[in-house]
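Sequence only, no structure available. Ideas?
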Amino acid sequence: MKVLIKVLIIISVSVFSVMPSTVNAQNQEHSDYYYQGYTFKETNGVKSASPYLTVVMIEGEDEQPKAVSMSSAIGDISLEGTPIDIYKQNKLEVYAGNELIGVYLPKQWTEKPPFPNGNMNIHMEIPANIDFYTVKELDLPTERNISLREFLKTMPDIEMDEDNFFGKESNAGLRIFINNSNLTESKLKSLLDNLTVNYIKNCQLVLYNEPNKYFSGAINITLVAGNPGSFPSDTQYINSLPLSR
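Reply:
I predicted one. Tokens follow.
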């Protein structure tokens, strides 16, 4: 049986609540704080997205990951749904395929933030010119009324185990992006059978050259309708401090 990788929500949210906070400073486990940001590189003074990087969150002195996700084609990375203890020195390990390319230290809070919940920025600058994946355009079928599930089942480089997808040569999962947003398990299951190919503009298979134990790559689907977003190159990246790169 292949290793099942749970799909995490990575839809970007940047709106902070202004309601009064009753958060206990000693226990953020049930708080609404979570990490969100972009992975990016800078070349000749120009910032651009660093996509498809595996990001592993380690909380405090724990040895096991608390959350694992992947940056989208526009570099967006979100761990929404995973509450964090903002008073611990957490760290984020960033992998290009199977290679650890950086460990980053998000801000450790020593007093209560001015906002009671929302995202803590984790914008992370990544070394440029790292070659760790290949992209293959998947030809859409002439029969446009078939479901997304039936379409993906015909792809020779993709294997399925119920509602989970894997690279053919790896036991690690494929992350699913639709318009650069990740999907919950229930949403993915619904779309597999209800989204038909005639709503798809294009579909790419991203495969790591060397898969890690979490992912072998991604399936990136762009729809005919909707906004897939873009990398905000004018954003100021001041929130994450690199421990090593």
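The two ends are 35 Å apart (CA to CA).
Hope that gets you unstuck.
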